[in-house]
Design brief:
380 residues, alpha/beta, Aspartate Aminotransferase, domain 2, Aspartate Aminotransferase, domain 1, 2 domains, seven-stranded mixed beta sheet, five-stranded mixed beta sheet, 12 strands, binds pyridoxal-5'-phosphate
């Protein structure tokens, strides 16, 4: 079955009692047993829920995986993966990860005696150099948030296998339509479903997909034991969103390419990063491992920090907002918003400057997005 067909149908069934073409929303906390010891496969929604099960099956199929485990947020999904480790274990992580992931690693998990080394995973030799006897997990974000670095998953997967390390990939920016990390030998793939997968800025959610039964059993156990589960209504909305994922990703990608070219040629733009541009340092890897380049762009304007801030304050169509990956174009100042909790020294070391602007290109008509940026740039 082709991807677009899977997006619409995988996991779904027509409700046998009514014929409803849309999978039912089981908005329930509990289920009535037939008799003591005999249920219909469900007992309590923290453990399992039919609407969630449909979403999990759907997202697993899209990522070429056997198992999907859905969580209340992308962050609780990351947290569940890290709970596969034990005190004393060491993690090698992409240096340019979403600020919330860095905060979880440094301010919470490090208190439980997990240690983290951050390297530029777009240079896989740096991963190999950082491996220690206690290393258990390589954690890669590709493309990264917000600098859009691309990691060669085939090479990193080889390193992980040679050293018997788990390899987890946060593929939120790519989505399974553009990249399926499990096909490169990755063990665990994660998405914040808040973003492109649900796609409409309506909910917070996360998912982990794997082919490994043992990892699945453990994560399923964490899901019910810790209880950071996605609610039935959020699962149902995500399922509706996923049906149009291929269409949206094509539009996000083509709009972003046009916006990136516009910004690249604009005299007030100092530097632009978009994996679809030949100027991107890992453009060739992105072209090889992704179907298209998604909708995220980051750039800096000439002049001081106020230039970028003025731009963000003057756009009208693009919303000044924290999130990404939805139908609406959104513009963000990572230094004060998504990455505010990464210490400034650390941020600057990684190239995440105070003037960096991140743009999540939506699916509006591209002429309107460009006109909005053009008018705002005149005021800078
Ligand atoms: C790449 C990436 N991973 C994980 C997360 C966390 O997801 P959530 O906000 O759904 O908890 C985000 C949020 O922005 C993100 O950008």
């Amino acid at each position: 079955m082709k991807f677009a067909t899977k997006a619409v149908h995988s996991g779904s069934y027509h409700d046998p009692s009514t014929g409803s073409i849309v999978p039912p929303l089981y908005q329930t906390a509990t289920y009535v047993l037939d008799e003591v010891g005999k249920d219909k496969g469900y007992d309590y929604t923290r453990s399992s829920n039919p609407t969630r099960a449909i979403l999990e099956a759907n997202l697993a199929a899209l990522d070429s995986g056997k198992y999907g485990i859905s969580f209340a947020s992308g962050m609780s999904a990351v947290d569940a993966i890290l709970r596969l480790l034990s005190s004393g274990d060491h993690v090698i992580s992409s240096d340019d990860v979403y600020g919330g992931v860095f905060r979880l690693f440094e301010q919470i998990l490090s208190r439980f005696n997990l240690s983290f080394t951050y390297v530029d995973t777009s240079q896989p030799e740096k991963i190999a150099e950082a491996i220690r006897p206690e290393t258990k997990l390589i954690w890669v974000e590709t493309p990264t948030n917000p600098l859009l670095k691309i990691t060669d998953l085939e090479v990193v997967s080889q390193i992980a296998k040679e050293h018997k390390l788990l390899l987890g990939v946060d593929s939120t920016f790519a989505t399974p339509y553009l990249l399926r990390p499990l096909e490169f030998g990755v063990d665990l793939v994660l998405h914040s479903t808040t973003k492109y997968l649900s796609g409409h800025n309506q909910l917070i959610g996360g998912v982990v997909v794997t082919n490994n039964e043992d990892l699945y059993e453990k994560l399923k156990f964490f899901q019910k034991s810790i209880g950071a589960v996605s609610g039935p209504f959020d699962c149902w909305l995500t399922l509706l969103g996923v049906k149009t994922l291929p269409l949206r990703m094509e539009k996000h990608s083509s709009n972003a390419m046009a916006v990136a070219k516009f910004l690249e040629d604009h005299p007030k733009v100092k530097h632009i990063t978009y994996p679809g541009l030949t100027s991107h340092p890992q453009h060739e890897i992105a072209k090889r491992q992704m179907k298209d380049f998604s909708g995220m762009i980051s750039f800096e304007l000439k002049g001081d920090i106020h230039a970028g801030i003025n731009l963000m304050n003057n756009v009208r169509l693009c919303a000044l907002a924290e999130s990404l990956g939805a139908v609406e174009s959104m513009i963000t100042h990572p230094a004060s918003m998504t990455h505010a909790e990464v210490p400034e020294e650390e941020r600057l070391k990684r190239g995440l400057t105070n003037s960096l602007v991140r743009l999540s290109v939506g699916i509006e008509h591209v002429d309107d997005i460009i006109e909005d940026l053009e008018l705002a740039l005149k005021k800078v």
